[in-house]
Structure formats: C-alpha cells, structure tokens
Amino acid sequence: MALVAPAHAQGAGKVGAPLVLVVGDSLSAEYGLKRGSGWVALLEARLAQKKIAARVVNASISGDTTSGGLTRLPALLTQHRPDVVVLELGGNDALRGLPLAMTRANLDAMAKAAKAGGAKVLIAGMQLPPNYGRQYGQQFAGLFAIVAKAEGAALVPFLLKGVADGPQADTLFQPDRIHPTAAAHPVILDNVWPVLEPLLRR
Q: What global pTM score does this model have?
C-alpha cells in the first residue's frame, strides 16, 4: 500500500534562498522509516552543517512512476519555482515491467520541463537485481545516463551504491528487500551530495 508523503518545505531557509525540489518515490518518501530519517531530511541537516542557505521541498510519493511524476511536475514547478530539481523516479517502472522507452521518454520530458522552468536538473540513477535479466537490467541502468547527457543534467549513476551492492547489503534493507533501512540513508545522501552541492554553489 502506497504511503503518500505530501509536498512540504523541510527547512524554513531564508527568503530567496535556492530551493531544491525532490520528485521521487518511496526511496525519497521515507517509506517504512521514522519521519526525519530519510536521505532528503538528512540533506536539510547537511545544508545547515555546510552553511549553505537552501531550502528543500520533498514531493516524493511511495509507489510513484515516471508517468506519475510527469503528471505532477508542472504544478510543482509552478508552486515552488525550484532552482534545482532532483528526479528520483524509474524504479517502480521497472518493478511493474513498463517499457524502458516510456521510462526514458518520461524522464526526458521531466528534465525538459524543469529546465524550461529555470531549474538545474539532477537525475538519480537506479539499477535492478540480477533476477530481472542481464540485458533488461543493463538497458534500464543505462537510460538514466542517456537522459542526463541529452538534457545536460547532473547524474548520480546509482542512488543505492554502497547499499544494494555493498558487503552489508543484507542488513541495509527492510524485510521487503526493496526499501533501505534508516542506516542506509546516510550512504544514499553521500551518493547524492557530491553531485548536488556544486549545483547549489554556482
């Protein structure tokens, strides 16, 4: 059952400070976690620690697909007028066996829309477990880089690097084997931070 994390500012920030809009699925919506322990919430704390005046809006919804994100994005761009848009979608497309061409087209359309609204774009890449088949898995993992290159977006090649492919992978996932535990989210933030920080300092 999908849990909805409503869009809300996670940090008060200063008026006029850069705004980061995260449009994602359960990996960003704190599914199964205590509120405030997911990587997006940890990002707010990192920004404060680094004395970077930026605000964060988490518009992630558990279970969302790229089609859902594409539908929601125009209203989010109008409402929040973000400076940076993080697109963390696609995993549910693959879990549902949706066509890769559709996932790619939706991500491309979202990146274009965000850029047209004056935002920089960061795409969070994802990979699939081996049981989905080597060819499908490779094509899925590769589409994020293809979209990022085509749209001039920043790229986190694999959001769950060090989590899903690390030696402690068994201990970093909830019992469903899909959603990371709270202990994994600092690692996820460390994957995003080196790519996101330069976008905020420009």
A: 0.91
